[in-house]
């Protein structure tokens, strides 16, 4: 049988290649632990994880994404939270809320009208006059205190409650969205520091100085990226964690207040130290004397350790005190790792197609410690024989332990 298959491959190489590609695609589509990279344009890689599908991975093309939902990496938000947040930011629901709060519909043409003066008798562009207090159509005759033939002094509680609720929801959303957007913009701006840091290091290395190890700069920059990213996604998490959309009835009002204060305290500490770290990283230390550079070096190293520990504590709070206490809603988040997501490296192993032919998954000879695998997605001219490997992180408990401290003296690959 094996000889017959080999003979068919030699006789019909094109058909054999298409068949192998079909088997590989079938294997990936049917295996929940193997998924295509969602990069745009598509890079042609598929990634395989060993144990936990709730993780963030980085393809060899550089794209980082959530393995569970294939969206951008969004930890500490759960996939459900991130889906709701992106939809909320994308649609016009908050624009509608703003119109509800700041305008009144014309009783004739029903278009929204915004009042731009102190008088409560307003006119729509269609010519209809109406009372701003109650929205009822009126005539145009009025005095400073009243409108002719119109009185709306009776209190209508339902209308007031609806308006106040819409205003409160709008302001709450704006609070979290503005801070999420601010940290996201800061992350984009700080990502441009790579080139600046490289130029500064070139200048420092060219000086006649006793300072030769500048790994603290690259490690500090990497820690800034990781912490800023976690901080920015913590605001959408807080919006839904302490709101009424997902966990209404799960916690009492007192529990929500206690847990919100606990989380916001940790979030504020992280935010303060991230801003301090950003300030020192952006310093023009290549122009400073050696003693001042040593001071900045110590500040960057200390703040890198502090922000890393604060990130760990915030994630532990989320997993244990917040999400871990829920009885009905199950929201899994990708764990926090000090060293982040390793980029995949190529390891040519032709095992995926064989596992399809044999009806079972075959493990490569190496490595033996488990890993994340990527295979080139078959295309018209692609090959089904290449697998890409990326070593996975250790157990989450080990990472949060005392021995999981990030070594700031190790050279980082941030600006490579």
Question: What key attributes describe this structure?
Answer:
416 residues; alpha+beta; five-stranded antiparallel sheet; two-stranded antiparallel sheet; extended; disordered C terminus
Topology:
Blueprint (H helix, E strand, L loop, with lengths): L1 H10 L1 H18 L3 E3 L8 E4 L7 E3 L5 E3 L12 H12 L2 H10 L1 E2 L6 E2 L7 E3 L5 E3 L25 H35 L1 H13 L9 H27 L11 H29 L8 H33 L22 E2 L5 H7 L13 E5 L10 E4 L5 H5 L16
Antiparallel strand pairs: 1-2, 2-10, 3-4, 5-6, 7-8, 9-11, 10-11
Helix pairs in contact: 1-2, 2-10, 4-5, 5-7, 7-8, 7-9, 8-9
Taken as a percent bin, the fraction of beta residues is 5-15%
Structural class: alpha+beta
SSE arrangement, N to C: HHEEEEHHEEEEHHHHHEHEEH
> What is the helix fraction of residues, given as a range?
40-55%
* Spatial shape: extended
- What's the average pLDDT? 75
Which spans of ≥5 residues are poorly predicted at pLDDT below 50?
A: 344-357, 359-416
Detailed description of the structure:
The strands form 4 sheets. The protein has a 5-stranded antiparallel sheet with strand order 1-2-10-11-9, covered by helices on one side. It has a two-stranded antiparallel ribbon with strand order 3-4. A two-stranded antiparallel ribbon has the order 5-6. The protein is built from 11 helices and 11 strands. A hairpin with a 5-residue loop joins β7 and β8. α7 runs antiparallel to α8. 48% of the residues lie in helices and 8% in strands. It has 416 residues and is of the alpha+beta class.
